[in-house]
Amino acid sequence: MRVTHLSLTDFRNYAQVEVPFNPGPNLIVGSNGQGKTNLVEALGFLSTLGSHRVSTTAAMIRSGEDAAIIRAKLEYNGRDLLAEVQINRSGLNRAQVNRSVIKTRELPRYFSSVLFAPEDLALVRGDPSGRRRFLDQLLVLRSPRLTGVLADYDRVLRQRNSLLKSARASGLRTTQLGTLEVWDDRLVEFGSEIIDERAKLTDELGGPLRSAYEAVVDADHGPALLGALSILGSDDTLGSDEGTDVGTSSGGSAGTAGIAKEAGATAELFRAALSGVRRKELDRGMTLVGPHRDDVVFMLNALPARGYASHGESWSFALALKLAAAELLRRDSASGDPVLILDDVFAELDQSRRSRLAAAVLGFDQVLITAAVFEDVPKQLAAHTIHINAGEVVDG
């Protein structure tokens, strides 16, 4: 898979821009604030329906405009596609593939990319919401049908929380108890699948993560991923997470033991956990266990990377995690490699790690790289260079 052409209208600082891309490495160069990252942010949105920089889509619309349009010509599975999305300041976004209207949530099935940017340091050092979002976005890229499962879980979670808040205010009545049990069933149905899929993904990432980390760092620091599941936590470990959305809430506590592999084991554990925290949920008016409160612990040198890893180690771990994700996608996909995007990465690396990273990514069908300084990027990645100035392509 690769991008052959990107067209933006009223996106960030671009009133209108047309950018051609080649197979292999493409280097986008420009001073800070000229619009380099805006180009790759637009492509990242096509494959994840989100931005690596902001949480709301309105920030991506050029000031004073009502909508932004992203159009990308793609080579996909041996055929050409035109993927388009209109991001609206008010109302729903709209999407098309080859001029036929599709549901916006279906876009990721047509374009697969993995983007690493300085903001990804928060994967290691930030709160659990970013790590949940990373796993869920990768799950959707590998299996687009999970978009619906995640959306269904989020909908059920909101409804259940609404009922719990109502019960807290008025006291739980018999009719509400019956309704709560119905929402419990749905929560367990969708939540168990998410938990199991995340667990499988975490296991599969382990090997590629170790290989990628060693390739970039040239040392074996034992990077590893450990699931931390709220349905395995005891009452006194339940934190103060006030979030309600899949992949967007801010906390979560949990045990780190594995889940049994028998069919239905996760659902049974989930039901038992809900029963165990029922009183606390009614007191607080919110759902206290489930995938919206889970985490994955990043380990380095047998210690949690968060709190123990240095800045350089954290950076290398986050980079290796994204390279591992790209490796999983290229193994799975019938449409070829994902497009690998490296946003302002090389400035943070010393010369030896720049060379090792270049060697690690050259095998991908297409790599898009942004840099403020041309000399920061190894020459083998600079064969096709696009120069950006004040929202315009000035050379390419």
From TrEMBL:
Keyword Transferase: no
Cellular compartments per GO CC: cytoplasm
Pfam families with a match to the protein in the record: SMC_N
Record keywords, A-Z: ATP-binding, Cytoplasm, DNA damage, DNA repair, DNA replication, DNA-binding, Nucleotide-binding, SOS response
A single MF term (Gene Ontology): ATP binding
Location of the protein in the cell: Cytoplasm
Binding positions (ATP): 30-37
SUPFAM superfamilies in alphabetical order: P-loop containing nucleoside triphosphate hydrolases
GO BP annotations, alphabetical order: DNA replication; DNA synthesis involved in DNA repair; double-strand break repair; SOS response
InterPro entries: DNA-binding_RecF, DNA-binding_RecF_CS, P-loop_NTPase, RecF/RecN/SMC_N, RecF_2
Main location: cytoplasm
Domain RecF/RecN/SMC N-terminal, first and last residues per copy: 3-370
Described function: The RecF protein is involved in DNA metabolism; it is required for DNA replication and normal SOS inducibility. RecF binds preferentially to single-stranded, linear DNA. It also seems to bind ATP.
Similarity section: Belongs to the RecF family.
Protein name, UniProt field: DNA replication and repair protein RecF
Organism: Cryobacterium zhongshanensis
